[in-house]
Design goal:
Elements (H helix, E strand, L loop, with lengths): L12 H22 L1 H23 L5 H17 L3 H16 L12 H14 L23 E6 L5 E7 L9 H15 L5 E6 L4 E6 L18 E6 L9 E5 L2 E5 L1 E5 L9 E5 L5 H12 L4 E6 L15 E5 L2 H27 L6 H4 L2 E6 L1 H11 L9 H6 L5 E8 L8 H6 L2 E5 L4 H8 L15 E6 L5 E4 L13 H10 L3 E2 L5 H10 L6 E2 L43
Parallel strand pairs: 9-13, 9-14, 10-11, 10-12, 12-13, 17-18
Antiparallel strand pairs: 1-2, 2-4, 3-4, 5-8, 6-7, 14-15, 15-16
Helix pairs in contact: 2-4
């Protein structure tokens, strides 16, 4: 009986093609494994040949002849040497194998986790950048982030540090509220606790978000290279200003971009207002300004907090007084008002006579008032004159006669500042943690970055008049008498302090203390020439009647140089 063959399963053409492809792929992989050394050496030879051709093309024509001659001599030497050609071939193959080795390709795109973060950020922006009437929206539910996001970078933790967003042209980027919503969303989705800079390009419909590096806090108080009448409030971001100054940062010297405040008759912002919370660094800012101002003129300090933050300046050369009580503050500010009037009258008389202004009217006088709202409350309770009223003359007319006023106070006392102080202090600084609304209420413009909730002392924003808002980090200028001050910062401040003035009868005791302890800082001889009288006789021509002269007992008593009473 004949056997019947088993029935064959039908094989379609698609299966044949798939099986053929699999066989071809397997053969190619096996061939690649076998020929891998040869492929590597061939790739290396190609790279060496390309490098040689580039080197030959870059060689000047006058040097090609000597180069060919030197190459021919080398080839002849290798050919005549024992086993030279064999060693040369082995060396060439080794170099080619090293150059042609496979390298790990650099990652050019985002990882899976970064892609997920970008997609989540895209979906969050859809309600703000889309409208139902748009036939082909850039932002749509279920859309791809690649057509709207570009120039994205991430840090080691997978958080965004830079992102460029292309938004539709109908978005109202000219409205502050609309822009603030987008900035707040990007800030929340990209990670809190960092300071972001948002650069809006209205013409190109693009928004560039970047994370700013923290400003360095290691720059201590020191002598800065500035022109007369210029004071360095602190330092800002590179590129925000058009100049740099050399600073000593730790053990090295580098160039840093400063925030320079110009005072004097040619200044458009002759007076400064600094605002912050307790511990924000406003007192350090005033202390830094005082140390810089003492190299140019005289300083009068009125401290309302009464904590002795300026005790290191008491009795120093150029420091007229450091007042912490209400009576002394009223007397010192009254003297400052009369001194401003005296300078105005003296300078006016000199101009009418065709002479330059006297030297005593051109020496800068800096009036530093820390927390005047405290004195205003005490004066109101005691029925005395508000000290802020005594600042009206220096604030309104001080610029013409080199009188500069610096006021510092806290956010919870801003409502107690007088209108004159608010109007004439056009240079502003906000230090410490603050909301965008608080920064805008002081500077008159919103911050260009997102303020963080935790910042070191002296960190904030500054604005000169109608200029742009700048980030600010005040140089570390702590109280050298504070036990919590580091030794490096203490020595930096002590080196900047002028010599101390003492009475002649105390000179011998001071010399004995210095002989016993050479580390005692030197002192200066007491001043013999008193300050000029605040008022002079009126001119023949009618002038505005100055304020009535106070009694001799009410005149201020500066700590170092008392103001003489009129005879």
């Amino acid at each position: 009986m004949a056997r019947r063959p088993l029935p064959r399963l039908p094989i379609s053409a698609t299966d044949r093609i798939a099986r053929t492809r699999e066989l071809a792929r397997t053969a190619a992989d096996n061939a690649t494994d076998v020929l891998h050394p040869l492929i590597t050496i061939s790739r290396g030879l190609r790279l060496l040949a390309a490098a040689g051709l580039r080197k030959w093309a870059d060689t000047p024509k006058e040097r090609r002849g000597p180069t060919l001659f030197l190459a021919a001599v080398c080839v002849l030497g290798v050919g005549l040497a024992p086993y030279g050609p064999l060693l040369a071939l082995i060396t060439l193959m080794g170099v080619a194998a090293w150059r042609g080795r496979e390298r790990t390709p650099a990652r050019t795109g985002p990882t899976e986790a970064e892609t997920t973060r970008l997609q989540a950020l895209y979906d969050a922006l859809v309600p703000y950048f889309s409208v139902p009437e748009d036939p082909s929206p850039l932002f749509a539910h279920g859309g791809e982030w690649a057509k709207t996001f570009s120039d994205h970078r991430f840090d080691g933790g997978g958080r965004l540090t830079r992102l460029r967003v292309t938004y539709p042209a109908y978005f109202t980027d000219g409205e502050a509220e609309a822009r603030a919503r987008i900035e707040q969303l990007l800030h929340a989705k990209s990670g809190r606790g960092r300071e972001y800079l948002f650069d809006w390009d209205e013409e190109g419909n693009q928004l560039l978000m970047s994370v700013l590096s923290p400003l360095p806090t290691t720059v201590a108080a020191q002598r800065f290279v500035t022109a007369p009448g210029e004071l360095v409030l602190g330092f800002t971001d590179p590129g925000a200003v058009q100049r740099t100054v050399p600073v000593v940062d730790g053990e090295e010297t580098r160039d840093a971009p400063p925030v320079v405040w110009r005072t004097g008759p040619r200044s458009t912002e002759p007076h400064l207002l600094a605002v912050g919370h307790p511990g924000s660094g406003t007192t350090s800012l005033l202390r830094s300004i005082a140390l810089q101002a003492l190299t140019q003129g005289d300083v009068l300090i009125v401290e309302g907090s009464g904590t002795g933050e300026y005790a290191c300046l008491t009795g120093r050369t150029g420091v007229l007084a450091v007042e912490c009580g209400l009576a002394g503050a009223l007397a010192s500010l009254e003297w400052a008002a009369h001194e401003t009037e005296r300078r105005l009258i003296t300078a006016n008389r000199a101009r009418q006579a065709g002479h330059p202004a006297p030297e005593d009217t051109r020496r800068p006088l800096y009036v530093l008032v820390d927390r005047p709202s405290v004195f205003s409350h005490l004066a109101a309770a005691d029925g005395r004159t508000d000290p802020q009223q005594l600042l009206q003359v220096p604030l309104r007319h001080g610029r013409a006669v080199h009188v500069t006023v610096v006021v510092a106070d806290q956010f919870d006392s801003l409502e107690f500042l007088s209108e004159t102080v608010r109007t004439h202090t056009r240079a502003r600084a906000v230090l410490g943690p603050a909301t965008p609304a608080q920064v805008e209420s002081v500077l008159g413009a919103p911050p260009h970055t997102t303020p963080t909730s935790e910042v070191p002392p002296g960190r904030g924003y500054a604005r000169m008049g109608t200029g742009g808002v700048l980030r600010l980090q005040v140089p570390a200028t702590p109280d050298p008498y504070d036990d919590a001050t580091s030794e490096a910062h203490r020595q930096a401040v002590l080196e900047l302090l002028p010599e101390r003035q003492i009475a002649p009868d105390e000179r011998r005791a001071e010399d004995e203390r210095r002989a016993a302890d050479p580390r005692t800082e030197p002192v200066a001889e007491p001043l013999t020439d008193p300050l000029p009288e605040p008022l002079v006789e009126p001119l023949a021509e009618p002038l505005p009647e100055p304020a009535p002269e106070p009694a001799a007992s009410a005149r201020p008593r500066p700590a170092t140089t008392p103001v003489p009473a009129e005879g």
